[in-house]
Specification:
Blueprint lengths: L10 H11 L5 H10 L3 H11 L13 E4 L11 H8 L6 E8 L7 E8 L5 E8 L4 E3 L13
Antiparallel strand pairs: 1-2, 1-5, 2-3, 3-4
């Protein structure tokens, strides 16, 4: 497990940091950013980006990954029928990573084959956090002996 720690910054300090990385003449942009970006999580992302700290991404566009449908928000999806038809032995459903927004909380946009409320197969999309992806490879599911 990674060691981590938390720090507290006041808004004027964050503005000063942003002013330091922006082009001269764009100092007002620093103040604008901290006024528009108000959540702590989003300000943390801005702070890290200003310092050149990039998020760790475990997957790339095109990867097939597995999620637990019960933990995903999807509109007009029959999760029970979808799980019965498409999930593997672990109960996780395969999805394809279609887009990545590295600084967003739900950074992965996934394409998921589902059964909709009318009982028809369709492709839908959902966004998830890194921790909501259960794994990518058979080795991620040792209880199943690597079989899907």
């Amino acid at each position: 497990m990674k060691d981590n720690f938390s720090i507290t910054l006041d808004v004027p300090y964050l503005v000063d940091i942003l002013k330091g990385v922006l082009k001269p003449g764009h100092e007002d942009l620093a103040q604008c950013i901290v006024e528009v970006v108000t959540s702590d999580r989003d300000r943390e992302a801005v702070f890290k980006a200003a310092l050149g700290i990039k998020p760790t991404l475990n997957y790339v566009i095109g990867d097939v990954v597995y999620i637990d449908l019960e933990n995903s928000y999807m509109y007009n999806v029959d999760k029970k029928k979808t799980t019965e038809k498409f999930a593997d032995k672990t109960g996780y459903t395969p999805c394809t990573v279609e887009d990545i927004r590295p600084y967003h909380t739900e950074c992965y946009k996934l394409a998921v084959k589902v059964i909709n409320g009318d009982g028809k197969e369709m492709l839908t999309h959902t966004t998830v956090r890194d921790k909501e992806i259960m794994g990518k490879f058979a080795e991620d599911f040792p209880d199943e002996g690597g079989k899907f």
